[in-house]
Design a protein that fits this description.
This protein is an alpha+beta fold. The two termini are 40 Å apart.
Length: 163
């Protein structure tokens, strides 16, 4: 008794798998992590504490003195950004985004320090956490959004792989 088996289409399958792999390592990973980070950034901007009135910040001027700057309410919220981490700083990862507070978006430079005071309640009657709260509120939604982007991209790459 002799059994003969024949499998057709393995080259096509291999081509499709490679196209999906290439897509996942390229723009698709950036889009997915970016979409998830955008959800967290938007939530943090929405819930961050906003001072009721203008307030004064004193910074060192680099010459041994201090500068006095009046800060408008909402300074920290306007400085919340999403940042893509370069490949040199993320070994082993295809793509990585973080949500942080920028120091350089508007005057006074120092929103990151002010954000730390707000998050942990330093020099304030009570803390007003916004970054951790944003993650707890929208972390699962951010993961779902990133997954949707990946799934859609994989499906598109699979279809293109057969063309």
């Amino acid at each position: 008794m002799k059994i003969t088996t024949s499998v057709k289409g393995l080259d096509k399958l291999k081509q499709r798998i490679r196209s999906v792999q290439k897509a996942a390592k390229g723009e698709l990973a950036k889009k997915a992590t970016g979409r998830g980070s955008a959800v967290l950034r938007d939530e943090a901007k929405k819930i961050v504490y906003t001072a009721p009135d203008d307030y004064v910040v004193y910074n060192r001027d680099g010459k041994g003195g201090k500068t006095r700057t009046v800060v408008k309410p909402g300074h920290v919220g306007r400085s919340i950004i999403m940042k893509r981490i370069p490949a040199s700083e993320r070994p082993g990862l295809t793509s990585k985004h973080i949500v942080t507070v920028s120091n350089s978006l508007e005057i006074p430079k120092g929103a990151r320090q002010i954000a730390t005071f707000v998050e942990y309640g330093i020099n304030m009657p009570q803390p007003h956490p916004f970054m951790s709260t944003a993650y707890y509120n929208k972390g699962s939604e951010a993961k779902k959004e990133a997954f949707k982007v990946m799934l859609k991209g994989v499906n598109e790459a699979w279809k293109k792989g057969s063309a």
